[in-house]
Design goal:
Elements lengths: L3 H7 L38 E8 L5 E10 L7 E8 L11 H20 L3 H5 L4 E5 L4 H5 L4 E8 L20
Antiparallel strand pairs: 1-2, 1-3, 3-5, 4-5
Length: 175
């Protein structure tokens, strides 16, 4: 809330708003109902499983991801949110180049996905149908001090599961 002095001097106020996102890349979605309580209990508005929209490379793996859209985990999906990591903590200055950000994020997200699935890093590496991705920083986020990346388990293009892969371990994918 704006201080009385600021309010009286400039007519300013501070506003804190809550938005629903339409995808994992922060695109604001439209909601026709209140978001109150939507992250409690089974968290109906939380990001869990995601439908992937992207292109594949010559080897058949994901090349460019255009959208990761939240979807009910009982519906066929190719990605799942596993958690957040911090990278570049204590690093000030300009946004690092893509290689530095990739190196920081790749190892930490790999470990987060492995833990989520219930595998070691090496065991995750032996599952060719599984990979990782994360969201990216832009210059404004970095300059504001944001150092969190969201990590996602990513399945091979066309390899859709119908349940969460949390704790799956070495088991078969729930297709």
């Amino acid at each position: 809330m704006a201080s009385t002095v600021r309010w009286n001097a400039n007519g300013e106020t501070d506003v804190c708003s809550v938005y629903s996102l339409s995808d994992a890349y922060g695109r604001v979605g439209l909601s026709t109902s209140s978001l109150k309580g939507s992250l409690a209990g089974n968290a109906p508005k939380a990001m869990h499983c995601l439908d992937v929209n992207g292109t594949t490379d010559k080897d058949g793996w994901w090349d460019r991801l255009q959208a990761l859209t939240p979807i009910d985990c009982a519906q066929p999906h190719e990605a799942e949110f596993v958690g957040t990591i911090q990278v570049g903590v204590g690093n000030a200055g300009p946004l690092p180049d893509d290689k530095v950000l990739h190196d920081w994020s790749s190892d930490a997200c790999w470990a987060a996905v492995a833990r989520f699935v219930g595998l070691t890093d090496a065991q995750l590496d032996s599952r060719p149908e599984m990979g990782i991705t994360w969201d990216r920083f832009d210059k404004l986020q970095w300059e504001s001090g944001e150092r969190h990346q969201r990590c996602f388990a990513l399945l091979s293009p066309g390899k859709k599961v119908r349940a969460s892969i949390k704790g799956l371990g070495k088991g078969a994918l729930p297709v």
